[in-house]
Amino acid sequence: MKSWIPTAPELARETIIVLGGAILAAAIISNVPALRDWIKNAWGTPSGH
């Protein structure tokens, strides 16, 4: 039976994948103004609470 708790290398690999995806998404969004505006319109403005 496979362990439920991931090993350190598995955890590190998944962490790198998630962080890499977030950094890539931020880089793409910051360089495509139309996409940035579309996301702002889709999410709306913060309500402040």
Give a verbal description of the structure.
The chain is mainly α and 49 residues long. The protein has two helices and no strands. It has helices at 8-31, 33-43. The chain is elongated, with a radius of gyration of 17 Å. The mean pLDDT is 89.
How many E strands?
Answer: 0
Query: What gyration radius follows from the Cα positions, in whole Å?
Result: 17 Å
Oligomer: single chain
State mean pLDDT (0 to 100 scale).
89
Give me a quick take on this structure.
With 49 residues, the chain is an all-alpha fold.
Which key phrases capture this entry?
49 residues, 2 helices
Write the layout of secondary structure elements.
Layout: H1 8-31, H2 33-43
